[in-house]
Amino acid sequence: MAPRRALSRQRRCQFAADPGFVAQQLRDAYSTELRDPEVSVIVRAMAARVYVDGQIANPGGYPWRREITAMQAVARAGGFRDTADTDYVVVLRRAKDGSQQVFEIRLDGAGDPQGQSSDLYLAPYDLVLVPESGVSDVNKWVDQYIRQNIPISPSEIFFGAF
């Protein structure tokens, strides 16, 4: 019986696949050259993203890192717009069974005995939604139903038609 030899090949690859699947593919590929090859696949980084949308400066997808919270994701996306409701944000998460989980994160400390805000660590592919404030809704209503429907401009009302 020949002694076992260790063969070390380090390859740096970027692709989306399950590490177990990749290990099996490599095992199958090397089995023509080696007897009972043992393969280890080490994931050094994930290309997962979190998504931030709503009333923030730069909505979009951002790289996920371990221990990133919803508020850190909002900060990474440029922070709140003036139209944002800064009392709370909503996090949507897809569970492994396909169901959707909804987390409301109170930023104003409401519901907490010490009055501290809550935050949540994000999972890959979570969606953080920043809702619009009530004042912003009123401003939108005034603009859509009053300003855009009056045939004269507000300056003509206050200063008279010239």
Could you provide a short overview of the structure?
This protein has 162 residues and is an alpha+beta fold. 24% of the residues lie in helices and 17% in strands. It has four helices and five strands.
Kindly describe this structure:
The protein has 162 residues and is an alpha+beta fold. It has two domains: 8-44, no CATH class; 49-138, Outer membrane lipoprotein wza fold like (Roll), CATH 3.10.560. It contains four helices and five strands. The chain has helices at residues 19-30, 70-76, 134-147, 154-159; strands spanning 49-54, 60-63, 88-94, 100-106, 127-130. The chain has a five-stranded mixed β-sheet with strand order 2-1-5-3-4, with helices on one face. The longest helix has 14 residues, at 134-147.
Largest sheet composition: 5 strands, mixed
CATH topology of the largest domain, what is it called?
A: Outer membrane lipoprotein wza fold like
Span between termini: 105 Å
Q: Compute the gyration radius: what is it?
A: 27 Å
Strand order of the main beta sheet, please? 2-1-5-3-4
Approximately what portion of the residues adopt beta-strand conformation?
Answer: 15-25%
Low-confidence parts: none
Helix/strand-derived category reads: alpha+beta
* H/E series: HEEHEEEHH
How many beta strands in the DSSP annotation? 5
